[in-house]
Write a structure and sequence with these properties.
With 362 residues, this protein is an alpha/beta fold. The chain contains 16 helices and 9 strands. The radius of gyration is 19 Å and the shape is globular. The protein binds coproporphyrinogen I. Coproporphyrinogen I binds next to strand 3.
């Protein structure tokens, strides 16, 4: 299927933007010339919308996280806040990976300081059989929020996102955040059929959430498999990759660049590309030059400023960012980002300075 003719990627508003050009493998300037080394690099930050911004904390006063996600006026405004403040090259839609689960009837809450918590963890074949499909009409608050954000963003692309089936399934099985997804990984081996049914359900729900955002105006799609780093490559390929392919198949026909990100995934980078991603997000644990080597030199990379350094003195951080930019030159193209999300205590001015550095103004 083609994108609607008034979609920003179809009508030309975002197709020539630095982010989309980089996601499609183009670099500003030409390899080998001076302009190449000085060329601006597009930049955005995972979790740029949210707790590091005082204007976000102000808007969220008295509104729960999930209520904010389902209020199109709030979700669009929160999406726009970091774009206005930092001049980043993309907005990322303000929502959460558990929103489509909630919309499919799962009893989930986001507990401040903890994260998503489920009233009834999903651990047996019966539990999985009780999971309901997602009614597409339930996604209206999401598409409305995307629509409003895109209308304001003009030529700045919006990134739609969703959680990958493994990360969602690990929350569902554990009942909340966990250190190493032990119960989920046990279920994967103890009851492979139950596991596969859960993964397929999660793929359909999260795939529909991602597709809805793209059709409503997102110019790129990022799949977060934040906790995939707890898996061996063999387990990833046998028990996770097929459902991730299934989730990505929901947007594969739309022609938007697809980014795939996880943490601790140095051993999984090529496998995470091969499920159908155009761009691989890399965390801070390996250099982008090494990531590029592991990806065979043919994949666009995104990353990988260590979030811990956001709290270091500017000269220390600036040197680290320059090192990330230099290593990123090994890849066909590079979008600067963090290795994981913005920590809540980050001084937002530091993020604005990183944008200036990436754009060549510092
Ligand atoms: O009240 C609050 O402000 C709660 C904090 C918060 C926020 C701002 C949560 C709870 N989610 C969000 C928004 C959010 N979640 C975005 C917003 C857009 C942006 O990036 O600017 C995004 C992309 C997510 C995605 C998300 N949610 C991921 C994948 C990215 C990642 O950080 O790895 C994950 C794992 C979640 C689950 C989640 N939601 C919230 C928290 C604290 C967590 C992590 C809990 C855990 O440690 O397992």
């Amino acid at each position: 299927m083609d994108l609607p003719p008034n979609h920003p990627l179809a009508d030309g508003r975002t197709s020539g933007s630095p982010l989309i050009r980089a996601y499609r493998g183009h670099r500003a300037g030409h390899a080998g010339d001076e302009a190449h080394t000085l060329a601006p690099i597009p930049v955005w930050f995972m979790r740029q919308a949210g707790r590091s911004l005082p204007e976000y904390r102000e808007l969220r006063r008295g509104v729960t996280m999930l209520a904010a996600c389902l209020d199109p006026e709030l979700s669009s405004e929160i999406t726009l806040q970091p774009v206005r403040r930092h001049g980043v090259d993309a907005g990322i839609f303000f929502s959460d990976i558990v929103v489509p689960l909630l919309l499919a009837g799962v009893d989930v809450d986001i507990v401040p300081g903890r994260g998503p918590v489920f009233a009834e963890p999903v651990r047996t074949a019966d539990d999985v059989a009780r999971l309901a499909p997602l009614d597409p009409a339930a996604l209206a608050p999401v598409t409305d929020g995307v629509d409003r954000a895109v209308a304001e963003l003009d030529g700045t692309p919006l990134i739609g996102f969703a959680g990958a089936p493994f990360t969602l399934a690990s929350y569902l099985v554990e009942g909340g955040p966990s250190k190493d997804q032990l119960s989920a990984r046990t279920l994967m081996h103890a009851e492979p059929e139950t596991w596969q049914a859960l993964m397929d359900w999660a793929a359909d729900v999260t795939g529909a959430f991602l597709r809805a955002q793209v059709l409503a105006g997102a110019s790129a799609a990022q799949l977060f498999d934040s906790w995939a780093g707890s898996l061996s490559l063999a387990d990833y390929q046998a028990h996770v990759a097929p459902a991730t392919c299934r989730a990505l198949s929901y947007v594969a026909d739309l022609g938007v660049p697809i980014v795939h990100f996880g943490t601790g995934t140095g051993e999984l980078l090529a496998a995470m590309r091969d499920v159908g991603a155009d761009v691989v997000g890399v965390d801070h644990r390996i250099g982008l030059d090494e990531a590029n080597r592991r990806l065979g030199g043919r994949t666009v990379v995104q990353g990988n400023i260590d979030p811990a350094l956001l709290g270091a003195p500017w000269p220390v951080l600036a040197e680290h960012v320059r090192d990330v930019l230099v290593r990123g030159r090994a890849a066909p193209a590079h979008v600067l980002n963090l290795g994981h999300g913005v920590p809540p205590g980050t001084d937002p001015d530091v993020l604005t300075r990183i944008v200036a550095l990436a754009h060549g103004a510092l």
